[in-house]
Structures are given as structure tokens and as C-alpha cells.
Amino acid sequence: MRDFQLPGRSPVYATRGMAATSMPAATLTALDVLRAGGNALDAAIAAVAVLCVIEPQSTGIGGDCFCLYAPAGAGKVVALNGSGRAPAAASIDWFEDRRISALENTSAHAVTVPGAVSAWETLLKAHGRKGLDEVLQPAIRFAAEGWPVHPRVAWDWARNEAKLRLGGSFPFLPNGAAPAAGDRFANPALAETLRSVARHGARAFYEGPVAADMVRTLRERGGLHTGEDFAVAVSGAEFVDPITLNWKGYDVYQCPPNGQGLLVLMMLGILGGLPPAPDGAAGAIRAHRHIEAARLVYRDRDAFLADAGAVDVPVGKLLSEAYLASQRALITDVAALADLPAAGESFLPRHKDTVYLCVVDQDGNACSLINSLFESFGSGIVAQRSGVMLHNRGFGFRLERGHPNCIAPGKRPMHTIIPGMVMQDGRAVLPFGVMGGHYQPAGQSWFLTNFLEYGLDIQESLDLFRMFPQGGKLEVERGVPDEVLRRLAAMGHVPEVTDRPHGGGQAIWIDHDRGCLIAGSDPRKDGLALGY
Q1: What is the model's pTM?
Q2: Based on the number of CB atoms within 10 Å of its own CB, is 141 exposed (0-12), middle (13-18) or buried (19 or more)?
């Protein structure tokens, strides 16, 4: 139990339904859908559509989506990959012929065909009780009428004014500047696009005037996209087999590559063979072990992770006990590894923006869903007639012939966004996620071990300070205790305070024995968890 004399908040308890999102209005939307007879999936998609309007730096219908869904009584987890693909003309030959050796985050070449709308429709048709015509109504209202900008959203928005100007996204700079906290922001063009999707389904996004607007916008900026690239994407979202690892009596599920959920399982597998750290959840030894495991698995990510539909990703080998044990043996409690075994440096950018949310309904259906533009405001390019901000997920590709993650026609890039789900005895017990680009696997494993190994409550597990090894430095939040930083530095780490917090998470614990739901929401975002 937390110290009630110190800043913080308690977990949220409920019995019939629960939602945790990064904006209060989205959480309330999810609860409204549940109380109107929708299930967890209906509520999650209604909520994420609202986030696409009122948290526009983090997500949008011009982005991608992944989902893990645990239908009550089914004893299984359903995984959906809603990530988009490169245009058919995007071959490595095309880039080499033009001596383009690296992608730019604000280039049209960094825009893959958005997959989110296809994902929403696919999920609802397979597992929902409602359709897009109903669940999109709250988002349409927010886009048409506007909504006050919240503090974290305003903070991110102000940091991206230059990108928005470069991308010609002037509708997102009302009066020539980013809106301040409390300013009301509307997107009437997006409202009309959402109305069209509500009436006619995903085809209204991937064909017709909306698709033409996106293609025209990208072609004007040198993109290779065509109407056909968008038309085939209407059915681009696909159900896939999730990957899983048994850890401390729990079955932890992730979406398979091209997502980086594999790294969560690898980190848990490495750390799970070690006894709990003697200094506890907030100690230097515990943090050091986590940092070392992250360094090892991110090295493997950069070497192997790619679109499993296009190249062979050695998932089985990387999750084998023999391999995980070999990596575990490299970690000592004394010092950081001075030199890792051969690994490539990451070519992905820092500090991505994403929204993660989870919902559990009264029947026990559990939804873990994540939707993203990648970096803040994605590419910064908006299709103005349709109001669609276009992501820059293609920036995750490499322009390196022969690399598993090299760009290719119709290929999906390595993806950072990952929903999580924990099952026990064939029942969902914990939909969870930690957004934050690169940081997500480190953040998910940090949260899970906080909660299920070190005994922090679900809110404390999200609140606890975070750190992340990147570029030879250890990026630490300001909340890390000085003594921990001194001990980590003595072990050979190089702490450096980051200018932005690491990610933001949501989680719901399903207490089957006591018949209640317990949730937490990350203070690093503007959101909250609520139930009824």
C-alpha cells in the first residue's frame, strides 16, 4: 500500500467493467459503450477513435494498430496485425538508383499505407457487437465540435511546431501556433472523413475521395504511393498467431514480428532465471539487471527483427531456454558489460508517440489495443481535405540491401508498438501495455516485474521511475534516486537525464477470486482508469 502522505494515486477498483486510456474523455467513452451493451472490443475501438481526435500528436486514423483480444471462456488470445505496408514501387533498387541511403522522418517515403482503419473494421466484424457506424460517433462529435487540449498534449504539440510547418499541417497550427492547454481544437475535415467511414466502412478510407487526397498529398511530396496501394489495404489487417512465454506461472502473450513484442518475452526469460534482486524493486542491482537484459535483447532486435511474412525471423531460437540461459550468464551484479557480443546499432529515431489502452467488460472479455503515428504527429504531413495526419512508420525500414528489415514492395517495417496480455489457467488476468517507441519492451517487462515479482500495486508499478539504455548512455527520468544513479555509474553505466518521460502505460488486473477489476493509469500521460 502506498504512503498516503506522499503524492500519488490509488489503483481503481470496479466489478462490472473497466477502461484505462491516456485521456479522460476516451476512458469515459469506453465506459459509455460498455454500459450501452458493447463488449470490450467495441469500447476499445470507440475509445481509440476518440484518442485519434483529441490526442492527435500520438495517434490518428493515418496510423497503425495492433491488438490482443482474449474472448471470455475461449482459453486463448487472438492477435491482430494492423500495420501498413510500403508502396509497391518502394524497392531498394529505386532508392539506390537515386543515391538515397537513409530515410527522413518527415519524408513521404517514411509513410506506409495506414493500417488502423482496416484493423478496426476487421476486429469489429470478427469479435464486436457493434459496427463502425456506432462506435465512431463519439470521435465524430469531438472532431466536429472540438475539445480542450490537455497539458501533456499541449506540451508535445508545442515541441513539434516546426515539423507541422514543414509538413504543411497548418490546420494543426490554429492562429499560426500550437494550441495551449485549455484551448479548444476541432478538426472538421477529419469529422467528415469519420462520418464517411461510419456510413460506408473502411472502403471509404482506402478508396474514393479520402484515399485520393492522401495519395495526392504524398505524390506531391515525392512519394511512390498509388491508389492501388491504398485499395488493396482495405483488407490488409490480418489475424496472426500470438507468441507466448510462460513466466513465473503466467502465460505472457505478444503479437509476433514485425512487432517487437518478442523482446518482452526475451527479457522476461532472461530475468526470470535470476532470483529477485536483494535491493528490491527500486534498487540499483535490480535496475542494473534490467538494463543489461535490455542491451542484449535490443541488440538482437536490430539484427533480426523484421516482417515475418517477408523474411525468416528466428523466434524459436531467440525464445529457447538454451539461448536465454546463455544471455543470462553474461549478466553479473557487479558491472555492466563493457562490450556486447556483435550487434548493430539501432537506426530508429528516439521518442515515438503512441496511445495504448485496455478494456475489460462484465463478461470477462479483455482487450489490449495500441494505435500509433510513430513519432509525434508522425511525418507531420496532413492530407488537408480529409484531415488525416499521416504517420511515419516507414522510417523503421533500413535502406541496407540484404538486411532483414530492408525496405521492399508491400513489406511491413519493424514495428515498435506492442499490446500485452497475461493469461493464467486459460483465463485473461492482465491486459497491459507501455507505450513509448523503443522503450516499450523494456517498459512492459519493468512493469510486469514491478507488479508480479516485486509486489508493487498496479498503480505503483506504472508510477515507478524508468530508465533505458540507448546510444551508449543510460537515459534516466528525473525521479531516479541519486544513490541509485551513483551505484549504476560505479558499475559502468553512463546515466543521462532525459528531457521526456519514458512512455506511458495502462493496465487492468482481473481478480477472478474476488470478482473485481483493479486498474492503473500512467501519470506520464493525461489519462485515467475508471470502472463501474
Answers
A1: 0.96
A2: middle
Per-residue pLDDT tens digits for 479-529:
999 999 999 999 999 999 999 999 999 999 999 999 999 999 999 999 999
Q: Could you give the 3-state DSSP secondary structure of residue 162?
A: helix
Of 264, 294, 259, 295, give the one whose Cα is nearest residue 396: 259
Confirm if 247 and 84 have CB atoms less than 8 A apart: no
Q: Nearest 5°: phi and psi at 423?
A: -115, 155
Q: What is the 3-state secondary structure (H, E, C) of 240-257?
A: ECCEEEEECCEEEEECCC
CA distance 261 to 313: 13
Strands of 238-240's sheet in order across: 238-240, 78-82, 64-70, 366-375, 352-360, 18-21, 528-531
105-128 per-position pLDDT tens digit: 999 999 999 999 999 999 999 999
Let me know the angle formed at the C-alpha of 519 by 514 and 523, rounded to the nearest 5 degrees: 155
Residue for grid cell 490546420: 171
Cα(208)–Cα(231) distance, integer angstroms: 9
Burial (CB < 10 A; 0-12, 13-18, 19+), residue 516, is middle
Answer whether 87's CB lies under 8 Å from 225's CB.
yes
CA gap 277, 457 in Å, rounded: 18
Measured distance between the N- and C-terminal CA atoms of the chain, rounded to whole angstroms: 22
Q: Compute the distance between CA of residue 82 and CA of residue 67 in angstroms, rounded to an integer.
A: 8
Are 359 and 19 a contacting pair, CB within 8 Å?
A: yes
Point out the residues that are catalytic. Answer: 354
* pLDDT tens digits along 291-304: 999 999 999 998 88
